[in-house]
Amino acid sequence: MKHGASFSLTKRHTVSIRDHCGLTKSGDGLCDLLTELRAGLEKGESNQTKAPSIRGLNDVKVDIFSKLKLKCRISGNPPPKVVWFKNGLKLKADGRIKLRSKRRYSHLIINRVSLDDAGHYKCIAKNVLGNATAFANVIAATTTTESPFWQLRKDPCPRRNFCLNGGVCIYFAVVKEYACECADGYGGQRCETKVISTLSIDFQGE
């Protein structure tokens, strides 16, 4: 059968499909297609085959600590199976990442976004007639109004001698930022500036 071709199937063919595929090993493309179509017919679904297509996935900018939600609208018959990738690596559901797929769409949800979640995401829908792919770039940004540094967890500083003149280095791992607590008399991002206090005194003549 030509790639991308379509044909119709009626319920009266299901017995012959079952007989044929019962004698055929899994991996026979035609048999797999007919088996999936038979399952769809038994559920009352359309008997018109169609290669997968995807729409609705767009680039997005998301704040750290918020929720990222990507959605692919999918179509195809037999119903496509959907797989998500980030920077070329297949994503798997865990406590923070959720993958939810139904017949017409698939969701990727990431809770408590961090800067590490930024990257190139890919949604692939596949059935026996072919596959379709959609892409989205995700940018993770900090928002000082919602997440000021003083509310973030402080971690051991990975850079020695980052702070000068006796300053103490502080590292905020979640946003990958350094800060310094400067000793008295010094200021600046790395405590590199000496602060000179001036006192104006008015002298009055005797």
From TrEMBL:
* Cited Gene3D superfamilies: Immunoglobulins, Laminin
> What region holds the EGF-like domain?
153-192
Task: Give a yes or no for keyword Nucleotide-binding in this entry.
Answer: no
Q: Which SUPFAM superfamilies match?
A: EGF/Laminin, Immunoglobulin
Could you tell me the gene encoding this protein? Nrg2
Where's the Ig-like domain?
52-139
Give the CDD domains listed for this entry: EGF_CA (cd00054)
The organism's place on the tree of life at top rank: Eukaryota
UniProt-recorded name of the protein? Pro-neuregulin-2, membrane-bound isoform
Return the InterPro entries for the record: EGF (IPR000742), Ig-like_dom (IPR007110), Ig-like_dom_sf (IPR036179), Ig-like_fold (IPR013783), Ig_I-set (IPR013098), Ig_sub (IPR003599), Ig_sub2 (IPR003598)
Q: List the disulfide bonds.
A: 163-180, 182-191
Q: Which UniProt keywords apply?
A: Disulfide bond, EGF-like domain
